Amino acid sequence: MTTSEQQVPTAAERIHEAAAALARHRGGPCLVFVSRSLVHADILTVRTALGSARGDHLDMIVAGPGGRSEAAYLLARELRRRFARLTAYVPFEAKSAATLLCLAADELVLGDLGELGPLDQQYEEKQTADYPLSTSRLLPGVALRQLQDGATACYDALVRRIVKESGLRPLEAGSKAAELVGTLYAPLVQQLDPNRLAECARGLAVGKAYAERVLRRYRPALWAESGPQLLERLVQDYATHNFVLDREELAEVGLPTRAPDDTEVALLNQLALALIAFGTDDDLIALVTGADGTPTLAAAGSSQARGHTPRKTLRGRAGRTT
Question: Which of 118, 107, 124 is nearest to 249 (CA)?
Fold first, then answer.
């Protein structure tokens, strides 16, 4: 076969090859976990891939735009019940629920293009004559706080102006200002749905509670040092669900990462490019031993296999993530 006739490796094959090289470099098994949306079915696939495997250490390549926080928690529990130590490699994007999974790792290694994401849960908001819109559960609370801040600032400014221009006493000016602020802001506040506010607050609390349990059980030293502050920042501090949490940002947040060595840098860059080409229409879950590069199981099924609608590639994600 001539060079021109040789087949170009697929993105999945390139991921397998890089994972096998990482397994050889590290001298242990490597779990490839690429999920278009982390759900409970992934736990069963991982269990099948691992078989009876248990041991002192497992390396894991994590990629995906998100999924269900309870599924991420259960998967973290499954892995930590089997392996004493866990290293998570993030070549490209491991967002939201995938970020929660990474919190269970003793070591977190991000490539040059690696990034985690905030833990603000998403939910599907119904739209008129359109597909559901994936929306952050932070938004209703943010809207309420903005109204509160705006009303307070407006009230303070009105009181000062009324006292200055009318000569009324502060108490009288406050009464007038309260009437004006109520007239301006009451219609806006009435548009907020208290049930939606409560539902979103509960959703955020659930995701945060799972993350807390992961840190308490598997990263006790980190939890004792800065766990509550770390989770508060991951849940509340970012303006968008897709905010980039790279190595530098994670250092500021208080989530430690290990710098990749020279071999890992090259392999993580290869994996990032292969993951971009692979996209998020399919899953790829496999255990690679590194002996011959052959995975014990590869799951790269169609988007309909688990009842999901097709997604776009990693350059333009669509669909539901949490």
Answer: 118
CA dihedral in degrees (84, 41, 242, 268; nearest 10)?
50
Spatial strand order of the sheet with 284-288 comes to: 107-110, 83-90, 55-63, 30-34, 284-288
CA–CA distances in Å: residue 1 to residues 4, 5, 13, 49: 8, 6, 20, 34
Stated as kind and residue range, the H or E segment containing 249 is: helix 247-253
CA dihedral (73, 76, 80, 82) in degrees, to 10, reads 110
- Closest listed residue to residue 217, CA positions, set 70, 95, 40, 73: 73
Q: Sign of the C-alpha dihedral, residues 203, 205, 210, 214?
A: positive
Q: Which residues pair with 31 in a beta bridge?
A: 60, 287
Segment 59-65 shows an average pLDDT of: 96
DSSP-based three-state secondary structure for 99? helix
Residue 290 has pLDDT above 60, yes or no: yes
Amino acid at 19: A
Q: What CA–CA distance (Å, rounded) separates 122 from 140?
A: 12
Over residues 68-122, the pLDDT tens digits come to 999 999 999 999 999 999 999 999 999 999 999 999 999 999 999 999 999 876 5
Q: Tens digit of pLDDT for each residue in 213-244?
A: 999 999 999 999 999 999 999 988 887 888 89
Contacts of 123 (CB under 8 A, 6+ apart): 134, 135, 137, 199, 200, 203, 320, 322
Label residue 311 by pLDDT band (50, 70, 90): very low
CA 56 to chain centre: 27
Considering only CA atoms, which of 218, 176, 202 is closest in space to residue 85? 218
pTM metric for this prediction: 0.75
DSSP string, 162-231: HHHHH---HHHHHHHHHHHHHHHHHHHHHTS-HHHHHHHHHHHHHHHHHHHHHHHHH-HHHHHHHHHHHH
Contact (CB, 8 A) for 66 and 117: yes
